[in-house]
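Dear colleague,

Following up on Tuesday's group meeting, I ran the structure prediction for the two-component complex that the binding team flagged. I've pasted the input sequences exactly as they went in, so you can double-check that nothing got truncated or mislabelled along the way. The structure tokens for the whole assembly follow below. Feel free to forward this to whoever is handling the docking comparison.

Inputs:
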Amino acid sequence: MARPRASDIIDPLDRAEADSRLAGRSHAGAAEAARASRRLPAILAALGAVLVLYLAVPFLVGFASLDRADTIAAARDAINAGAVGVSVATATASTAIAMVLGVPLAYVLARGDFRGKALVAGAVYLPLVVPPLAGGLLLLTVFGPRGVLGWWFDARSIQIADAWPGIVLAQVFVAAPFLIVAAQVAFAGVDPALERVSYALGVPPLRTFFRVSLPLAWPGILAGLPLAWLRALGEFGATVMLAYHPYSLPVYLFVQFGAQGLRAALPIAALLGVLGIAALAVVRAAGAAARR
Amino acid sequence: MLTVAAACRLGNFTLDVSFRSAHRRTVLFGPSGAGKTMTLQCMAGLLVPPRGYVAIGKTVLLDTERGINVPPWRRRTGAVLQGDGLFPHLDAAANVAFGMRRVWRGREPTRALALLAAVGLPGYGERRPADLSAGERQRVALARALATDPRALLLDEPFSAVDAPVREQLRRDLIALVEARDLPAVIVTHDFDEAHVLGEMIVVLVAGRVVQSGAPADVAARPRTATVARLVGAANVLSGRVVGREDGAAVVRAEPFLLRLANPAGGERVQVCVRPEGLRVGPAGSGGVEARVLRVLPRRVGATVLLAAGGTQLEAWTADRPPEPGTLVDVSIPDGAAHALEPEEPRTATMQSTPAR
């Protein structure tokens, strides 16, 4: 090798800089040392690169193989079939439900000190333990037409399974844990001393929650929102068990793939990808606005 | 009038305090881990002791015997807890307005700015806590406590994070504020200088108990036990023996001195305390006990002189030109400069050896 390795050049320099820093002379020395300490082991970078490629390549290849006219037609079909509207509406509703019920739960888990807290905390992870398909099966035992709650609705002609409520129930089941965990971490990061200060300033616990705990945890909760929304949007397994109809996008994708093959299904996958990126962008903008 | 009593156990720490203060500024003083913060939290209602009583003026906030326990958000105890506790998501004005009562509805912003001005921060309304210095943050925290129309102010180590010159100014401003508003204040500190400056009355806490209380000058001059003596800088604690008694006073042999003490406490063995400024140091032959100067530590005013008299090390303070290290001097204790200490609270020792009652 004719060329000297980078480390050969930097090392003697570092030593000189370190000496000058010890003597308390140079700012450039500090900058140089900081840059040197950022050198990453090549093997770690290489391993990471393999995974990044694996994650990104299907997107590049898949999107590259899209035919423009086909895609527009397929997107129009999906919209006409109602799948886009169903998916966006149900994912948004599921996320809203998961938030309204999940944020209080997360606060209780982060701050509460009660018997059986470990059990409650564990229950949050139950939907992650079983595959969504199995989760859908379990939901059927409760909300199916002959399920323990489903019969009550069935007797009153309120349709749960194979209807919008079924889709939302399936999505909440699989998506809520993401939001709860994110919110719990966010609440745990709020200094409890600030809540005590709030009490001492004359603000009772519930108002303290809304005026101190929630605003301070909000950025963390906001970070959990797109995770939950995307998980809901992409939900297939539990949904297909509980509510095959009306078609949500993933179910529609599955149906199209079965009927017409890859060419017909691929544009729907692209549509899901676009919706996902859009959701992330919205939340990012909201987060930036919240931080001002 | 302020009355506080609290008994509780937290882990293997036992708090059992009780004091009463008719003064405007009361200082809870003691080493860290003495239970000062716990006592303050019992007053603020953030900690509820199984047995306790807290009253400010005629208002009873806690009386476990009668089942009275006003929750913290209704106590209006104006707490400034450790580390200022400003809400980072709110600007200074919103922090100050945070706990304002309903009667101020609609006037919060104006009043917040007025209070900020009152604590020396005019025009600081829109500053975020992160952009304020430690001293400014303490001032905002103080304004925020005042904004709740409190019955009292409870301050936990309010100035410990502040640089010395700013701290001095903050102390003066705090005194002026509580005087102007006629507010009783309870201030927690582990710094005796601060206790001395801020307190009209000092309550000394050691290991969860009140070991002494009184005016700062009295506590400084006559610490009750050896622990308090050490905390208030009364550095010389000598072991002595009563060798005779005459008209209520005792003659005590405390090497290398022979002293007449007015307050002989009980037994034959006593500990004698002399403040550094109580020792009189003069040139050799001027009378007293011969001592060698080990070291001289210059102070802002005067100097600390470390002495060896026989086998005993002594710490003296002199306002005059200090003697040279290595020279011989005469040291004596004028009448009234020494007093006998009481033995340490024996219950403290038994509590530690038997954790469960």
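Residues 2-221 of chain B form a domain with the Rossmann fold fold (CATH 3.40.50.300).

Cheers,
M.
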